[in-house]
Sequence to fold (184 residues):
Amino acid sequence: MSVFQEEFNKTVKLELGKTLGIKNPMAVPSLKKIVLNVSTKDFLADKKNIELAADDLAVIGAQKPVVRKARISVATFKLREGDKIGLTMTLRGKRMYDFYEKLVKIVFPRMKDFNGVDPKGFDGRGNITLGFSENIIFPEIDSGKVDKIRSLQLTIVTSAKDNVQARALLEALGMKFKKENEDN
Fold:
């Protein structure tokens, strides 16, 4: 168990339960998983691109990503059924808490002009999706060795029942959000 996870279980969870008015400690929202996704049109152009992106994603998430294939053919995009079109990775347990801690304490502060996460990324069920236009903001990626900057999407799945509980959970875990009246 990571230090960040132990801190959450011992102190943050109790405080969050009091803040949200939840008496049962098992009903207090928590992180369930973090899902990372990478997909670009370059994967169709050259098979080497998907291998390079898989290497980058493996370094970022500390485990091997799963290659996703197209389920249907789309002629306009020159896409055939079975073509490799994306990479995905699901983090749980210790890796999830380690990744979240790195995201909040290292990645967000490294971002240029970061004013907080946009709360419009919530889906209504307590999950939030974030998109990064550059994967080089992660400290494991050596910007000098990168052949091409790739985008990355991640979804943080929580056990919260709604966006209010999820936001309270993520704020308790150190995530900063933009104020509601701020524009971009």
